[in-house]
């Protein structure tokens, strides 16, 4: 388990991580989401003892990284898959990692097998594709057979096969009872991988909930109602407000209602005999729900988020 309490990191005037408190539990995949610059990598680096918190704590199994006797046996990480010595073979890279951490050499063969790199173990990692590098990084994370795994953007740049593979291994590691914490800035990616999502923006916690709950919440969505008669529109808007929902004018004839179901809006219109030309539930995609959650927390403003539904990275 990973526990963060009041975790804060400042770089000069920039607060990269701002008072984060949460628990990342074992036996499930927790997705760590947030737009670029939200503070995900900094948080992960602090969990791994690579950065020191300005205040607060990041604990792995109740201890700070420095306090762990055999860190690699408790927590494995994939941070930057490209940070490998290009002249080394995959096997020698893992062997040197194993040696310096008191891990038996035969474990190297096991992890090579797990990540499917046995047949290319003698190849220099400088010749590896991104996907192979990612597999090797994950092999390194698994070397000490740790109960906690931290992967920073593990699917970034991978082809669909690679993405599927990472998803599969994350799932099977969680099913074995491990804590799997992986970051992404793509909600759509997490939808298919994570059980729980932690969303941050500008270093602050925005949401920490089961992914199904986030989907359900977003499924509440909005109701689009078209009222041709202006007076009817006014009347319906005021009835919607009195009922505790919010109604915004979208274009000439349309009200966009939040917090209500289409049945509720239809009933409110019916009670006042207001003629409708359209009554439609609009279910936002999970991506939209995420953008709504994180809007206002982008490092460089919100303008580039408009009209995007497939992620935030382009
Ligand atoms: N070593 C550093 N010195 C100064 N500022 C830093 C440093 N590392 C990170 N930051 C700043 O901290 C903030 C959070 O960065 P971080 O890399 O943790 O975000 P992120 O969510 O991982 O983003 P990305 O998805 O782009 O990797 C950013 O404003 C970044 O510029």
Automatic annotation (TrEMBL):
Residues spanning the membrane: none
InterPro entries in the cross-refs: AAA+_ATPase, ABC_transporter-like_ATP-bd, P-loop_NTPase
Superkingdom assignment: Bacteria
Domain ABC transporter residues, every copy: 2-227
Gene3D superfamilies documented for this protein: P-loop containing nucleotide triphosphate hydrolases (3.40.50.300)
Family stated for the protein in its record: Belongs to the ABC transporter superfamily.
PANTHER family (alphabetical): ABC TRANSPORTER, ATP-BINDING PROTEIN
Official protein name in the record: Putative ABC transporter ATP-binding protein
Organism, as annotated: Streptomyces formicae
Organism phylogeny: Bacteria, Bacillati, Actinomycetota, Actinomycetes, Kitasatosporales
């Amino acid at each position: 388990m990973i526990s963060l309490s009041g975790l804060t990191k400042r770089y000069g005037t920039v607060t990269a991580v701002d008072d984060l408190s949460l628990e990342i539990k074992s036996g499930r995949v927790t997705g760590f989401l947030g737009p670029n610059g939200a503070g995900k990598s900094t948080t992960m680096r602090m969990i791994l003892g690579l950065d020191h918190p300005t205040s607060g704590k990041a604990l792995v199994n109740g201890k700070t990284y420095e306090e762990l006797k055999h860190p690699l046996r408790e927590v494995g990480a994939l941070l930057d898959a490209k940070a490998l010595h290009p002249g080394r073979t995959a096997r020698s890279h893992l062997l040197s990692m194993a040696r310096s951490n008191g891990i038996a050499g035969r474990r190297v063969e096991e992890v090579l097998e797990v990540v499917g790199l046995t047949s290319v173990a003698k190849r220099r990692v400088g010749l590896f594709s991104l996907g192979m590098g990612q597999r090797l990084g994950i092999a390194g994370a698994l070397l000490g057979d740790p109960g906690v795994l931290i992967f920073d953007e593990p699917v970034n740049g991978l082809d669909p096969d690679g993405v599927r593979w990472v998803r599969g291994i994350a799932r099977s590691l969680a099913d074995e009872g491990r804590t799997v914490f992986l970051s992404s800035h793509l909600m759509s990616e997490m939808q298919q991988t994570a059980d729980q999502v932690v969303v941050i923006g500008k270093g602050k916690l925005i949401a920490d909930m089961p992914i199904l709950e986030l989907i359900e919440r977003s499924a509440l969505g909005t109701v689009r109602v078209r009222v041709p008669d202006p007076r009817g529109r006014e009347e319906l808007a005021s009835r919607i407000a009195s009922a505790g929902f919010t109604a915004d004018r979208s274009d000439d004839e349309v009200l966009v209602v939040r917090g209500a179901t289409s049945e509720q809006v239809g009933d409110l219109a019916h009670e006042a005999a207001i003629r409708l030309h359209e009554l439609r539930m609009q279910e936002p995609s999970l991506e939209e729900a995420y953008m709504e959650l994180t809007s206002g927390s982008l490092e460089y403003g919100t303008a580039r988020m408009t009209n995007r539904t497939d992620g935030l990275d382009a």
